[in-house]
Amino acid sequence: MPGKKLTPKDLENFRSQLRLMLGVLEGDISHLAEDALGDGSRMEFQGDEGEIYNIEFSLQLLERDEQTAQSVLSALGRINEGTYGRCEDCEDWLIKERLRVMPHAIRCVDCQRAAEAEQR
Ligand SMILES: [Zn+2]
Hints:
This protein is mainly α. It is built from four helices and no strands. It has helices at residues 8-37, 49-81, 96-101, 109-119. It starts with 7 loop residues before the first helix and ends with a helix.
């Protein structure tokens, strides 16, 4: 069942939620980049397995955070364009509960499932 059109107040709420997310993500990203790549002051690289594992793990998290940050940014763009809150595929309004949990969602639950099934 599709949701309803979002009110300007809803949009403002989601905008601030998205901005908050972006702030947190940007903080995480710079921390993780420092963990993985060092801040330039770490001259000695031991190269043991634990260290390599940690770097790889940080890079994985970094990649994931960057992807999320990208979708948060594009969600903010959609708020400006007036297309925020609609499913990219079927153009139904997303239910608000879904947006509360995942304000950067671009598809309704059904279309998201279908898209993920296609990827497999
Ligand atoms: Zn849909």
